[in-house]
Specification:
This protein is mainly beta and 194 residues long. The chain has one domain: Jelly Rolls, CATH 2.60.120.620. Helix content is 12%, strand content 37%. The strands form two sheets. The chain has an eight-stranded antiparallel beta sheet. Strands 8-7-10 form a three-stranded antiparallel beta sheet, with no helix packed on it. The longest helix is centred in the middle third of the chain and has 10 residues. The radius of gyration is 16 Å and the shape is globular. It starts with 11 loop residues before the first strand and ends with a strand.
Length: 194
């Protein structure tokens, strides 16, 4: 896959079982605006990781796609996603939402798509500050359920990955009193027009 030259350059890149994962830093200057907005958002305990963990719901709030595409954060995300496009395939968003986790929450490992779909998940860490000791990492696993990569929250950090990579967001540690906001935009792969 040859990246599009208009795409954002990644800070770090991984490949897990042949599937891409890229981290982008420093592209969202107004992180504090998003954090303030999320502090007022109406979260509901409706999100589940996988069907067998359905009794353990976690907090989320949805954003309509019509509103998403008007936000500067979407423009940055779309430029990063360009690096995953090819002549044959592109991506379009189909869902956007924010999760919030605090100490004591239980989050479960999962995938975001089936292996043959090759959808992408763009995950933003929305915080004004994050301390290493607070935890909250997103762990990514290989086919043997070994940790293949860990991405820690940082203000305005974006990680984009193939949705078939098993992953889990870890809740913050006891000493963290800040919410762990992650804003996810899901992209489905689609054939490029001929």
């Amino acid at each position: 896959m040859t990246p599009n030259p208009a795409a954002l350059a990644a800070s770090r890149e991984f490949e897990i079982d042949g599937r891409p994962l890229r981290v982008f830093d420093g592209h969202l200057p107004n992180v504090a605006d998003y954090v303030r907005g999320l502090a007022k958002a109406a979260f509901t305990r409706t999100e589940v990781a996988r069907p067998e963990t359905a009794e353990h719901k976690h907090w989320a709030t949805e954003i309509k796609l019509e509103a998403l595409v008007q936000q500067p954060i979407f423009d940055v995300t779309a430029r990063a996603v360009l690096g995953f496009t090819t002549r044959e395939y592109g991506y379009r968003p189909y869902r956007a939402y924010t999760n919030v986790a605090t100490f004591g929450d239980m989050l479960f490992s999962h995938t975001d798509c089936l292996p043959d779909q090759h959808d992408l998940t763009a995950l933003w860490y929305l915080c004004e500050h994050w301390d290493l000791e607070w935890g909250g990492e997103t762990m990514f696993f290989d086919a043997n359920d070994e940790v293949a990569a860990a991405v820690q929250p940082r203000p305005g950090r974006l990680v984009i990955f193939d949705g078939a990579i098993k992953h889990v967001g870890r809740p913050p540690n006891r000493i963290c009193y800040a919410p762990r906001y992650t804003f996810a935009i899901k992209f489905e792969r689609q054939r490029a027009p001929a």
